[in-house]
Every structure is written in structure tokens, then in C-alpha cells.
Design goal:
This protein has 301 residues and is mostly helical. The protein has helices at 10-13, 21-38, 42-55, 61-72, 75-88, 95-111, 131-139, 143-155, 163-175, 179-189, 199-211, 215-227, 235-247, 251-263, 271-283, 287-293.
């Protein structure tokens, strides 16, 4: 999956010194959305980006919302987000790309009778609980709904935060063949969401997801090996996994591999290759790589 998600919103949702809780909430929602997008869980990404925009209504976030909605097949939302983004940024560097995507989505919407994507109708009970429809659908074997319900419990959005229940639901999805459920299980067991860390299970599920084609899981597994995070340190294996992640469209893998080539860590030092990877990652939205490509200031005299 080509990673086209530009991280334009990072600066917009960054908490300024003395910033309030809304800044922090927006930043957290944005990071959750980016994590979901990189794993192909586009509906989950869209919800997270929408939450970030609700907390911090910066127009840069409209691009991320548009890309997630576009990838999820939510054509009407993609059209509205792309249009609003273009109106807010009439001279943006990616204007031609966004205009092309907008035209494609509009063409798809005209061709669909009725539209393919229909947002789920969620009835909220007197306690504000959205789980009941998802519970029924998940119990009937609707794995994407299990994923949605797991995300609600994981983030405490639409349901009481319960990481153990999120793990159970992601396990059901993974066992049922939803490879993105396996990727999220790896993330859950890595301790990323505040639950107890289990490196053995994190390695197991990241490996399953990586083998299944989830590029982000390859990057996460590579990071574990490069840093010896709960597994025997194996920098060479980590470099291989970063390469696989990069080839699959995860720009973090490209950036991480570029750093290894620049430093000669686990690979033969090759500044030309490092530069190539940083350029690819920068074009794909990696701010780390964009910064790495900036010329260093001259030494002070």
C-alpha cells in the first residue's frame, strides 16, 4: 500500500507551551489515526482524524480526513474533506494530487447507484453507549465490526476504556483471518496502549501481520530487533524488516533504514542510499526524513 498520507497536521495539533487539554487530545487522536492508516485500518483512521479535527479544527487535518475516507470508500466524506482542504489551501504543494483524487472520487460516486459506502447507524443508549449494534454484529462474525468495537474499548471512545476487552476483540478478529487485527494485537502487547507489555506476543503478532502484508507491522517488528526491545538484538534482521516495510509503503521503515545506512549500523554505510531513502520517505510524509535532507548550518567561526 502506497503511503500517501501527508503528515501536514502534525504541527497543527502539536501542543504549544502552556497548551490546554484539547491540544493534547487532538495530538493523541492524530497519532492514533496515523497508526491505523499505516496498517490499512482506514475506518479506524478516519474516526481518529475526525476526533483530532473536532478538538483542533485546523484545515490541514482535512487532507488526512480526505485520504482516510477515500481509502475507506466513504466517498461523500472524502469529497467534502478534499474540497474544504483545497478551499483552505488554494496554492498548496499537493494541490494537483488532491484535485486528481477529488475528480476520481466524484467519478466513482456518480457511477455508484446506490453509493457503496453507507455509514453504520449507531443508536446511543441513555448512558451514551454505542456498543450494542457492534456487539451483535461482531458476535455474528462481522470481523470489521469487531475491529471497530475493539478500537472503542482501546481508546475509550464510544465505550468504556477497557484494554483487556480490546485485546479479546482484536484476538477474535485476528483468529478469524483479519490480518490487521493481528497487527493491532502486536501493538497492544507492545504496551503501546497502557496495558501490560508482553514482548513475546508482540513479536508473534507483528510477525504474523508482517507476513500477511501489513507493512507497518514489519517496521514495528524491525524496531524491536534493532533495539533489542524484549527480543534478542538482531540489527541485521531489523534492517531487513525495515526494508520490507519501506517496500510495502510504510515511510517509517524507509526513514529508519535510511538512518541505518547513514550511520552504517547493521548495514554497510552508504550515504547515497540513505539519501535516496530519505527522499522517498519525505515525499511520503515523513518529517524526520525531510529534516534529515535539510542542509546542515555552517560551523560557527
Amino acid at each position: 500500500m502506497m503511503m500517501l498520507l501527508l503528515l501536514l497536521a502534525t504541527e497543527s495539533v502539536r501542543a504549544e507551551e502552556g497548551g490546554d487539554e484539547r491540544d493534547a487530545a487532538a495530538r493523541a487522536a492524530f497519532e492514533s489515526g496515523r497508526f491505523a492508516y499505516e496498517r490499512g485500518a482506514f475506518a479506524d483512521a478516519l474516526r481518529s482524524f475526525e476526533r483530532a479535527h473536532a478538538q483542533s479544527p485546523k484545515p490541514e487535518l482535512l487532507y488526512n480526513i480526505g485520504r482516510a475516507a477515500d481509502s475507506d470508500g466513504n466517498l461523500a466524506r472524502a469529497i467534502s474533506a478534499y474540497s474544504a482542504y483545497l478551499e483552505a489551501f488554494p496554492t498548496s504543494d499537493n494541490r494537483e494530487f488532491v484535485q486528481a483524487r477529488l475528480a476520481k472520487v466524484q467519478e466513482r460516486l456518480r457511477a455508484e447507484k446506490p453509493p457503496r459506502h453507507k455509514p453504520a447507524v449507531v443508536r446511543i443508549n441513555e448512558k451514551g453507549d454505542q456498543r450494542a449494534p457492534l456487539d451483535r454484529a461482531c458476535a455474528q462474525g462481522d470481523l470489521p465490526r469487531c475491529m471497530d468495537l475493539a478500537a472503542q474499548h482501546r481508546d475509550g471512545n464510544g465505550a468504556t476504556k477497557n484494554v483487556a476487552e480490546a485485546v479479546r476483540l482484536y484476538t477474535r478478529a485476528c483468529d478469524g483471518g483479519n490480518i490487521h487485527g493481528c497487527a493491532y494485537l502486536g501493538a497492544m502487547h507492545s504496551g503501546r496502549y497502557g496495558n501490560a507489555k508482553n514482548s513475546e506476543k508482540a513479536e508473534q503478532y507483528f510477525a504474523m501481520a508482517c507476513q500477511g502484508g501489513v507493512a507497518g507491522a514489519c517496521n514495528d517488528l524491525g524496531w524491536m530487533y534493532v533495539n533489542g526491545d524484549g527480543v534478542p538484538k538482531h540489527v541485521g534482521r531489523g534492517a531487513e524488516l525495515y526494508d520490507r516495510a519501506c517496500g510495502g509503503g510504510d515511510m517509517r521503515g524507509c526513514t529508519n533504514l535510511a538512518v541505518m545506512y547513514a550511520e552504517g549500523a547493521g548495514v554497510v554505510k552508504n550515504e547515497v542510499r540513505a539519501n535516496e531513502l530519505h527522499k522517498k520517505a519525505c515525499l511520503g510524509g515523513s518529517q524526520r526524513s525531510c529534516l534529515a535532507l535539510e542542509p546542515s548550518p555552517p560551523p560557527a567561526r
